[in-house]
Amino acid sequence: MKAAGGDVKGGRQRRAQKRYGNVKRCLDAAAALGALLALFPVFLFAAAGISLSSEGPILFRAERMGKGGVPFIMYKFRTMEEGTRTEKGRRKKEAGAEGAGRKETGHGGRITSADDPRVFPFGGFLRKAKIDELPQLVNILKGDMAVIGPRPEDVSIVKAHYTRRQMHTLDVLPGLAAPGSLFLYTHGEALLKGSHAEQAYIERLLPVKLEMDLYYVRHASLRYDAGLILRTMAVIAARMCGVKRFGYPAEYRVVRGCQEKKRQTPEDIQAYACRKRCQGDKTG
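Predicted structure:
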């Protein structure tokens, strides 16, 4: 009887998940199409600004890991210099560092640091306002992404650093926003500075981000998605108005098992990330 009851309960859960996925897909497609039409002037503004600010294409295409471990091409507005101008900027900064008695290894990894010299000024504005992510509305229409879901990661980072448990973040479509991306937007930049941003991201931030996204995957619902959309919009608006300090997302506090008002330092985050990596190595 107990086994039969479990089968019935499991069947109901699967049907509920299927309904949720179908409804979410319809809402995502409608929202993406509506946003593309409504934000068309913003697209023109971004394209014109990029053309006037930097030589090169308007869009940046990057291979990212999608649902089920299937790679796809993700679109963004280009915010970084390309080719010769990038190399000149890097050499100029390195020359300045040597003149001041410092040694830098330069930038150029898969992760963009907060002070990356490759980002041109108008591109920095696009990144801060998250306008650079708007072309991913096309990815949503194509079915590669959703409005809410774990942010798509670089394919090589997934293959090299994800544990078996963390691979479950690929059970759903990647999205424009998720608890982990909110955390990175409000708290991650403090750790992503200098020429070792990629190492800091992989060792300190990625395990925490993935834990928060796993929480989302386990509790995904239309209500949860709507709340994340509102939270993301509020955080972006606050950042654009000059707010620099934010509380930790609820998912972070749940994952950490700490009280709502307790604040952690970057050192706490690093220690937590190290513990999660060790656990992942043992179980993955």
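Summary: The radius of gyration is 20 Å.
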